[in-house]
């Protein structure tokens, strides 16, 4: 006899181990794709281009080349 409040046994489904940072990045990419009407590859290219620009700016400022 089964107790009425007990649920039937079922296999445990594995949970995906995704970090919150990775989920945030994926969500941001989806938002960018929607806002700019771009494909995922184009969004990735936009992000890479921005990272290159930012690193160039930081290197330039560290050398003291640009003064505002």
The percent range for helix content is 55-70%
User: Structural class, please?
Assistant: mainly alpha
What is the string of SSEs from the N terminus onward? HH
- Write down the overall geometry: elongated
Low-pLDDT sequence parts: none
Number of strands: 0
Distance between the termini: 81 Å
Mean pLDDT: 80
Sheet with the most strands, sense and barrel status? none
Number of helices: 2
Radius of gyration: 24 Å
Q: Which band does the percent of strand residues land in?
A: under 5%
Give a verbal description of the structure:
The protein has 68 residues and is an all-alpha fold. The protein has a domain at 23-63. The protein is built from 2 helices and no strands. α1 (20-35) packs across α2 (40-63). The longest helix has 24 residues, at 40-63. The mean pLDDT is 80.
């Amino acid at each position: 006899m089964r107790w009425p409040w007990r649920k039937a046994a079922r296999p445990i489904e594995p949970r995906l181990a995704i970090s919150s940072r990775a989920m945030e990045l994926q969500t941001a990419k989806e938002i960018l794709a929607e806002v700019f009407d771009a494909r995922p590859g184009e969004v990735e290219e936009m992000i890479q281009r921005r990272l290159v620009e930012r690193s160039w700016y930081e290197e330039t400022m560290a050398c003291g080349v640009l003064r505002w």
